[in-house]
Design a protein that fits this description.
Elements (H helix, E strand, L loop, with lengths): L1 E7 L2 E6 L10 E9 L2 H8 L9 E2 L3 E9 L11 E4 L9 H4 L27 E3 L2 H4 L1 E2 L6 H6 L3 H11 L8 E4 L3 H12 L5 E4 L3 H10 L3 E3 L6 H8 L5 E6 L6 H8 E9 L24 E4 L6 H12 L9 E6 L4 H10 L6 E5 L1
Parallel strand pairs: 9-10, 9-12, 10-11, 12-13, 13-14, 15-16
Antiparallel strand pairs: 1-2, 1-4, 3-5, 3-7, 3-16, 5-6, 6-8
Helix pairs in contact: 5-6, 6-7, 8-9
Bound molecules: NADPH dihydro-nicotinamide-adenine-dinucleotide phosphate and zinc ion (ZN).
The site of NADPH dihydro-nicotinamide-adenine-dinucleotide phosphate has 29 residues, from helix 1 and helix 6.
């Protein structure tokens, strides 16, 4: 079978691979819709995970099941399924401890296009099918379903990590597709003032749609200075980081009130250390919490998030700015994600 792969750091190309083997708990799918991710760009062109050789890329998509293992109970060939980017081993001790995304090792719930071939293949393998897949509901298109793999759950996890409460003032740093879903997640959790950081007009327009009340440009000087000015020197209750660099944490800490929380879902592709500003961190006593996390993945989350779409509480279509038809266009879609033209939020390939 064919797949679009990372050949080595900085290089991609089409390769031939064997049809994947289906274990007793697993499923094999063929893609119906696929989307590239900024994470694929970090992985290939920044070498953020280290080198990978001939690894099929991609972790966002909707599929149709072509084969299931003997022990799979709830799915059968022909089912159309939502596929989470993070597919934990649900019987691991880490999952039992509440950290499914780190099942069998740090970030190891992230398997597609990290430890194993991703979804940009003619077929792809899903571990623990009953624990990870969810039926694509009637009423959600494969294209919309592809946004439920990673953009919605990751952006929403940012709002969970920051523990957004009713009326909180929230700063969302980065309003690419992930940050936009953090804006939407924070709004659904009851944020009051919601300040979004980003510059591309198409993203700002979408951020307003999802609930941003104010904007800051990181190009106009330090984010914290602008936020402190806007909030009478007080700062915000919560910060969600969905863009920027290792240095963004300094701005986030400075913009945060004592007792506040920073939730990071940004994939830090480069830089050795994250520096925390001593004074603004309350000289070690400011109760400013910083937590970063990979989204948990799995079926229950897919079902719950798709319920938001089905019941009209979340419109993911605003994320999709570019569409392609045909599997071979996966390459074009990924290159678009790498080049990030000004009018791009997210491309999707329909197969
Ligand atoms: P985008 O590149 O589309 O968006 C990045 C956003 O950050 C843009 O709004 C951009 O502004 C803004 N930005 C850029 N530089 C800075 C800066 N110095 N300070 C503040 N804001 C800045 O990315 P995505 O939304 O696709 O993804 C966001 C991150 O989330 C990526 O790192 C991605 O790899 C990661 N990710 C993490 C996952 C997880 O599970 N933890 C899963 C999926 C993605 P502008 O409008 O000017 O472009
Ligand atoms: Zn992704």
């Amino acid at each position: 079978m064919k797949g679009f792969a990372m050949l080595e750091i900085g290089k991609t190309g089409w390769i031939e691979k064997d049809y994947p083997t289906c274990g007793p708990l697993d499923a094999i799918c063929r893609p119906l819709a696929l989307a590239p991710c900024t994470s694929d760009v970090h992985t290939v062109w920044e070498g953020a995970l280290g080198n990978r050789h001939d690894m099929i890329l991609g972790h966002e998509g909707v599929g149709e099941i072509v084969e299931v293992g003997a022990l799979v109970k709830d799915f059968k060939p022909g089912d159309k399924v939502l596929v989470p980017a993070i597919t934990p081993d649900w019987n691991s001790l880490e999952a039992q401890a509440g950290f499914s995304m780190h099942s069998t090792g740090m970030n190891s719930g992230w398997k597609f296009s990290n430890f194993k071939d991703g979804v940009f293949g003619e077929y792809f393998h899903v571990n623990d099918a009953d624990g990870n897949l969810a039926l694509l509901p009637e009423g959600i298109s494969p294209m919309e379903g592809a946004m439920l793999s990673d953009m919605v759950p990751t952006g929403f996890h940012g709002a969970e990590l920051a523990d957004v409460q009713y009326g909180d003032s929230v700063l969302v740093i980065g309003i690419g597709p992930v940050g936009l879903m953090s804006v939407a997640g924070a709004a659904l959790r009851g944020a009051g003032r919601l300040i979004a950081v980003g510059t591309r007009p198409v993203c700002k327009e979408a951020a307003s749609f999802y609930g941003a009340t104010d904007f800051v440009s990181y190009k106009n000087g330090p984010i914290d200075e602008q936020v402190l000015e806007m909030t009478g020197g007080k700062g915000v209750d919560k910060v969600i980081i969905a863009g920027g660099t290792v240095d963004t944490f300094q701005e986030a800490v400075k913009a945060l009130k004592p007792g506040g929380r920073i939730g990071n879902v940004n994939y830090l592709g480069s830089g050795e250390y994250i520096n925390i500003p001593r004074v603004e961190w309350g000289v070690g006593m400011g109760h400013k919490n910083i937590v970063g996390g990979l989204m948990p993945g799995g079926r229950l989350r897919m079902e719950k998030l798709s319920s938001l779409v089905l019941n009209g509480r979340l419109d993911v279509s605003k994320l999709i700015t570019h569409t392609f038809e045909g599997f071979e266009h996966v390459e074009d879609a990924l290159m678009l994600m790498k080049d990030k033209p000004a009018d791009l939020i997210k491309p999707v390939v329909i197969i």
